[in-house]
Structure formats: C-alpha cells, structure tokens
Amino acid sequence: MDPLTRISRTVWQLPFPTGHVYLIALPDDGFALVDTGVPGSAPAVLDALARLGGRPDRLRQIVLTHCHVDHMGSAADLAEATGAEVLAGAPDAPYVRGTAAEPAPVLTAAERRLHESVMADFAAAGVPPLRHLAVDRELHDGDTLDGWPEPVRVLAVPGHTPGGIALHLPASGLLFPGDVIGASPDGDRAVLGPFNVSREQAEASFRRLAALDDVGTVCVAHGGPIRENARAVLAAATPEKDWR
C-alpha cells in the first residue's frame, strides 16, 4: 500500500518513484487530482482515493500540469474509471490528445545522463505505453478552477513544456508548480526542473513562481514538498545554475 502524506486539511500527496500526485478534497464530497503518475499508476490512485473515503465516481477533476508521461501517464485510465473532467494548459492540450507530437526537450549533458537513467528505469519497471485522451477544458493564465475549497489561480508557466501550468491557492498558501520547480528529498532546497523545451522560459517561470507572495507550501512532483520557509527556499534557489 502506497503511503499518503497529508499536506493540509484538504490536500494529500501520493508519492511515486517518479512523479508524485496530489488528491484534493472538494466541498461537495468529491475529489480533484493534480497529475496522475506514469502509465500503470491508476490502481494506486484509486486505492488512495478509497482510503480517503471516495468512490471512483467521486473524482471530479483531473488537472494535468503538463503533458509529460509521468504526469499524464495514467490520466486515460483514471478518466475512464471515474468520469472525471480532464483539464490541461491550452498549448499542451494537443500533446495530451495525441493530435500533435510532443516537442523534445533541449538537454544539457547532465540532463542527458539523467534522462537516460529515467528511461532505463521505466523499461526495467515495465511501464506500459502512454495512452492519449481527450481534454475537456483548456486552461489559460488567469483562469480559476471551480468547486475547490478555496479560490484557485491558474498560472501559465511555459518552458518545461509549451503549455505547463501551476496552480496557486493564495488563501492556504499552496502552490502546485508542475515540473518548473523540483526539490531535494527533504524539501529544503528548490531546483529548476530538468528536461525543458526552453530553458530561458523555464527559468523565467521559476522566478515568477518564486516571487509569489502567498506561498507557504510548494507541492512539487519530484522531491519532497517544500513545507518550511518556502519563500526563503525559493528565494535562495539558483535555477540558472542547475543542471549545467
């Protein structure tokens, strides 16, 4: 049984070896999901939902921060099992649907070594092939999400992918940055996420998120959640030096 880590009164992290996902309890007794893990992760997500008291049909929304396989990998299976609405950033929607080829990242030498290691791990684990799926709602910078416990701002954070998004909940200080921001295992150091299609844009997106006033916890997909001194941790980061 995969562990669940409670982040706040309404948010839980379900950690995976690659690409954590987050479950959010909604006021109508439903749930939202931020990202879905690699292909084959749906049973673990549904098990976590059940442990929180949710039947599959209570998963209302699947929000994809971007189109990479460790984030959208189980979205098709979960959408079929639950009937949840699928949301993604508008520029990434064609890649999620499979109507356009996902752009390749521009890799540094350090990133190339890491990428090869991740792909080898996927192969060794027998990760199933990616399934594409429909996007029910395309999100843009400045949009808001309905039905959550508090207002949710959608922020466009291009660079990692063309249509990456972050979710900011100012009232509770939560930030879901997608892969623009990664963290050390204990969450005391923030780094620029690797494998970017435009490093310059990714660094600018990192700085945009780091400048937000109302951030107390950063719910990263890779590494440990940044839960202590989040603004100071982000301010101390040097994304321009990462993965060089």
UniProtKB/TrEMBL annotation:
Q: What InterPro entries does the database record attribute to this sequence?
A: Metallo-B-lactamas, NDM-1-like, RibonucZ/Hydroxyglut_hydro
What's the name of the protein? Answer: Metallo-beta-lactamase superfamily protein
Give the originating organism: Streptomyces nigrescens
Top-rank taxon: Bacteria
Q: Where is the signal peptide?
A: none
Could you tell me which SUPFAM superfamilies the record lists for this protein?
Metallo-hydrolase/oxidoreductase
Q: Name one Pfam family in it.
A: Lactamase_B
Domain Metallo-beta-lactamase positions: 18-222
For this protein, the record's CDD domains field holds: yflN-like_MBL-fold
